[in-house]
């Protein structure tokens, strides 16, 4: 009798191992098929349709000492191709704000590689705190890219508080008006755009180093070592992970 039970256990073990190997083989094949192929707009859009959820606003938080404009532009263009309308990029020192023209040139170059003949149909707006922006004017094929620095975090909250206090002094506002929606409306760094839902945090630093403390209450942060030479398969895997997250909103 025990011989028969051992035989059944052995058969079950073989079937289990077979199913595990089949799953691993499928995942490995899927990984290499994504890694080795040329990323085109059509292929990226196809991948985005198979996602459970896509963020409206994705953010790239650069906490590394070196910033690669080429690799950053590639991440931005992949996000554009997926159909994400709002993208923000944060570096503490504001290096990107000082080199808007260089970043814009790299985005255009990468856009032509990915979108090919359709690149002229898709445009982007590079926005800083000092540029007024109305999200309602964003076209279906247009993307808003916000460039952020440390002052757009705590500094922007301080500026908003000063503006509110001046409103009380001049009797244009009352203390009863101080609500979360009002503060959102007077924060200039992110005015007119939704809060980031997904943020890639690049670097070994375990802190967010002044990045938008007010707007990231519900943001899903994914830590990554570096943005340099990041593969599309890694980018896609991270967006998939976001689709599997459950936002409980404090519950």
From TrEMBL:
Native organism taxonomy: Eukaryota, Metazoa, Cnidaria, Anthozoa, Hexacorallia
Instruction: Name the chain's protein.
Output: ditrans,polycis-polyprenyl diphosphate synthase [(2E,6E)-farnesyldiphosphate specific]
| Enzyme Commission code(s) on record | 2.5.1.87
> What would be the name of the gene that encodes this protein?
NUS1
Annotated localization: Endoplasmic reticulum membrane
Q: Does the keyword Signal apply?
A: no
Q: Which SUPFAM superfamilies match?
A: Undecaprenyl diphosphate synthase (SSF64005)
Q: Provide this UniProt record's keywords sorted from A to Z.
A: Endoplasmic reticulum, Magnesium, Membrane, Transferase, Transmembrane, Transmembrane helix
Give the organism, scientific name: Desmophyllum pertusum
- Cofactor requirements of the protein: Mg(2+)
């Amino acid at each position: 009798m025990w011989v028969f039970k051992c035989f059944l256990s052995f058969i079950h073990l073989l079937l289990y191992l077979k199913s595990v190997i089949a799953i691993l083989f499928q995942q490995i094949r899927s990984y290499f098929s994504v890694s080795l192929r040329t990323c085109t707009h059509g292929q990226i859009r196809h991948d985005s349709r198979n996602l459970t959820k896509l963020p409206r606003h994705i953010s790239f938080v650069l906490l590394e000492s070196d910033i690669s404009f080429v690799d950053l532009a590639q991440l931005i263009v992949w996000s554009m191709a997926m159909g994400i309308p709002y993208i923000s990029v944060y570096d503490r020192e504001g290096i990107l704000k000082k080199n808007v023209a260089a970043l814009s040139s790299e985005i255009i170059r990468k856009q032509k590689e990915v979108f090919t003949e359709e690149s002229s149909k898709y445009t982007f707006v590079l926005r800083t705190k000092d540029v007024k922006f109305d999200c309602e004017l964003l076209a279906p094929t247009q993307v808003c890219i916000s460039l952020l620095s440390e002052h757009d975090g705590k500094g922007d909250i301080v500026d908003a508080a000063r503006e509110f206090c001046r409103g009380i002094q001049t009797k244009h506002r009352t203390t009863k008006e101080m609500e979360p929606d009002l503060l959102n409306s007077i924060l200039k760094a992110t005015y007119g755009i939704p809060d980031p839902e997904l943020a890639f945090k690049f670097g070994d630093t375990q802190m967010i180093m002044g990045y938008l403390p007010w707007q990231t209450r519900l943001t899903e942060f994914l830590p990554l070592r570096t943005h340099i030479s990041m593969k599309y398969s890694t980018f896609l895997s991270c967006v998939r992970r976001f689709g599997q997250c459950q936002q409980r909103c404090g519950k």
